[in-house]
């Protein structure tokens, strides 16, 4: 990286963006993941402009004059929203991504610094529905994604296509990261339309209130059998990996950012850890009439570890979950619920 750089993080108010902000602000200055001399970090939100609009996107680049972009902004949502609004997920995310990359390319030659790197954020949803496991970086385009989120998944896949095309036609240094399931402070804790961990955290909060009000038998109800396995990454660990990618990773090919396959956690273990974090350990039961979803969809982090080094440490799941629950309790009034 050059001695003076401006790093623009789109989606800076979200789960992942706030994870990066936390790490940059709390790690020692000049350290591996801390802020370096000459770096200016900008955490943009939708208040800086609607990135679906090319003019607003261009205005944001004009305002901040970035040299590097970590592009996180996206229309994201749970299964129900993805199934109901397929065209919206496809179109909004296609527009956002195309605008971010084209303004980074700056074909009109607007007077601002050349962009040295763009890292865009994909998701393991981009992978084919029918695929051999574990998922790895070579399988992104090897079959159609699951039909439930094909709008979102195709829009994300196209980022990888764009990255290759910008590299081949213009030599630009655009790449992408593929995180597995993320959780942490600033997540969306909505009771209906959220991912599994923030949804269960909010539900457990309500169960605890019921218990405190005298209903000693109140229990967290977990949809399904609790047996499916998932890889979860703490937003503050993911943040470190994005910061490392920004400084060290110069390949167009996407990189899976995840804990290892041997660190899969069952939904029952999630429920156990969350009830423990709230001080009501074991107060959960399963609604087995509800669907489980896929049993496992493991992704390998072998390429990541070969590059970042095997000494990279992920926060133990229980510890990360406790920090998330503590944050939720301290920020209940302002959290996305
Ligand atoms: P959040 O929903 O927490 O945050 C979304 C961010 O995008 C917010 O900062 C929001 O701004 C911004 N944004 C949304 N639409 C627009 C728009 N039209 N114009 C400008 N800004 C916009 O998302 P996450 O942090 O969870 O996700 C970040 C990235 O990580 C996404 O690309 C997502 O696909 C990816 N990802 C997430 C995973 C997860 O488990 N959460 C898993 C894998 C990948 P504002 O707050 O102002 O509305």
TrEMBL record:
What's the protein name?
GDP-L-fucose synthase
Query: Into which family does the record put it?
Result: Belongs to the NAD(P)-dependent epimerase/dehydratase family. Fucose synthase subfamily.
Q: What EC number(s) does its UniProt record assign? A: 1.1.1.271
Occurrences of domain NAD-dependent epimerase/dehydratase (ranges): 7-259
SUPFAM superfamilies reported for this sequence: NAD(P)-binding Rossmann-fold domains
Q: Does the keyword section mention Oxidoreductase?
A: yes
Q: Does the keyword Oxidoreductase apply?
A: yes
Q: Which domain of life is it from?
A: Eukaryota
User: Which PANTHER family does UniProt cross-reference here?
Assistant: GDP-L-FUCOSE SYNTHASE (PTHR43238)
Which keywords accompany this UniProt record? Answer: Isomerase, NADP, Oxidoreductase
Q: In which pathway does it act?
A: Nucleotide-sugar biosynthesis; GDP-L-fucose biosynthesis via de novo pathway; GDP-L-fucose from GDP-alpha-D-mannose: step 2/2
A GO biological process this protein is involved in?
Answer: 'de novo' GDP-L-fucose biosynthetic process
GO MF annotations, alphabetized: GDP-L-fucose synthase activity; isomerase activity
């Amino acid at each position: 990286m050059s001695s003076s750089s401006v790093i623009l993080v789109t989606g800076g108010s979200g789960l992942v963006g706030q994870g990066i902000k936390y790490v940059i602000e709390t790690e020692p200055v000049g350290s591996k993941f801390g802020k370096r001399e000459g770096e200016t970090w900008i955490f943009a939100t939708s208040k800086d402009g609607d990135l679906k609009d090319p003019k607003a996107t261009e205005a944001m680049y004009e305002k901040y004059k970035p040299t590097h972009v970590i592009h996180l902004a996206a229309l994201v949502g749970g299964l129900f929203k993805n199934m109901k609004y397929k065209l919206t997920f496809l179109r909004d995310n296609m527009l956002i991504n195309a605008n971010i990359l084209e303004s980074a390319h700056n074909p009109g030659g607007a007077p601002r610094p050349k962009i040295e790197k763009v890292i865009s954020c994909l998701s393991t949803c981009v992978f084919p529905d029918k695929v051999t496991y574990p998922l790895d970086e070579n399988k992104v385009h090897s079959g159609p994604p699951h039909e439930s989120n094909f709008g979102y998944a195709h829009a994300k896949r196209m980022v990888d296509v764009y990255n290759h095309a910008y590299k081949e036609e213009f030599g630009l240094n655009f790449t992408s990261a593929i995180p597995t399931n993320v959780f942490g402070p600033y997540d969306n804790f909505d009771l209906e339309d959220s991912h599994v961990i923030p949804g269960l955290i909010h539900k457990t909060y309500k169960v605890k209130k019921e218990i405190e009000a005298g209903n000693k038998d109140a229990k967290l109800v977990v949809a399904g059998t609790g047996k499916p396995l998932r890889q979860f990454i703490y937003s503050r660990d993911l943040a470190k990996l994005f910061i490392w990618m920004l400084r060290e990773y110069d390949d167009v090919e996407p990189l899976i950012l995840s804990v290892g396959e041997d660190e899969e956690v069952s939904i029952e273990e999630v429920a156990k850890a969350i009830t423990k974090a709230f001080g009501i350990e074991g107060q959960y039961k399963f609604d087995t009439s509800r669907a489980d979803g896929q049993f496992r969809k493991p992704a390998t982090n072998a390429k990541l570890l070969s590059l970042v080094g095997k000494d990279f440490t992920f926060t133990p799941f229980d510890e990360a979950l406790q920090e998330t629950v503590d944050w939720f309790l301290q920020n209940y009034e302002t959290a996305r619920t």
